[in-house]
Amino acid sequence: TYSFALKKGICFSDGDSVTLEDIEASITAFCDISIDSEYTQWLNYLDGYEEYRNGMGDRITGIHIEGEIISFTFIRPHFSNIWAFLVPIQKAEALNTTSGNVAAYILEGNSKNIGTGPYFFSRMRESSIELEKNENYWGEKANNNIVYIANSNPSVVAEEFERGMIDLYSY
Questions:
Q1: pLDDT digits (tens, 9 = 90+) for 20-79
Q2: pTM of the model as a whole
Q3: CA 149 to CA 128: how far, in whole Å?
Q4: CA angle, 85 as apex, 79 and 87 as ends, to 5°?
Q5: Which of 49, 79, 105, 112 could form a disulfide with 98 if both were Cys (CB 3.0 to 4.6 A apart)?
């Protein structure tokens, strides 16, 4: 069993406070049978995962909220259990108002999705993804927005780098 207290002052990118119910709803959402995600493989040892995923329960019995503490109980020790906490956190109210179609909410057009990190998804174009700095981020503030551009032409990348248009390149 892992138990956590939520740090005070953590907000979503829209300024709303993150709650323990948001964390529970987000992890539960990725246990839904309609979700095919890399996160699912890290949640399968949560107590009650199989029952919930197979429609035999309405909640994950291994997730408990008591006061200011949220606990996660796993059915067996495994090195990957800690990875369950990498699930992106969304607002419980948004996940609970999807008429039972959690997969559609999570997987469609990320423009509805908000986060708690230093950046949030802004726009996706044919060959780029734009992230805006989150002014409501609870930690160290980001300096600039980020634009990820997919370009495999080395001469174009080199030219853009020399002009100061690229800060980082990966191949």
A1: 999 999 899 888 877 777 788 889 999 999 999 898 988 999 999 999 999 999 999 999
A2: 0.75
A3: 4
A4: 125
A5: 105
Question: What tokens were used for 171?
Answer: 């191949």
CA distances from 14 to 30, 113, 114, 136 (A): 22, 10, 7, 7
> In whole angstroms, what is the distance from residue 123 CA to residue 132 CA?
9
Element (H, E) at 137: none
| DSSP β-ladder status, 69-72 and 63-66 | antiparallel
Q: What's CA 56's distance to the chain center, in Å?
A: 26
- What is the predicted pLDDT for the residue at 102? 53
Give the list of residues 6+ apart from residue 110 with CB closer than 8 angstroms, or none.
121, 124
- Among positive and negative, which fits the CA dihedral 102, 103, 104, 106? positive
> Position of tokens 């892992």?
2
Average pLDDT rounded to a whole number, residues 98-127: 64
Question: What number of other Cβ atoms are within 10 A of residue 103's Cβ?
Answer: 17
- Amino acid found at 153: N
> In which residue are the tokens 């606990």 written?
71
- Start-to-end CA distance of the chain, whole Å, equals 40
140-152 tens-digit pLDDT: 888 888 888 777 7
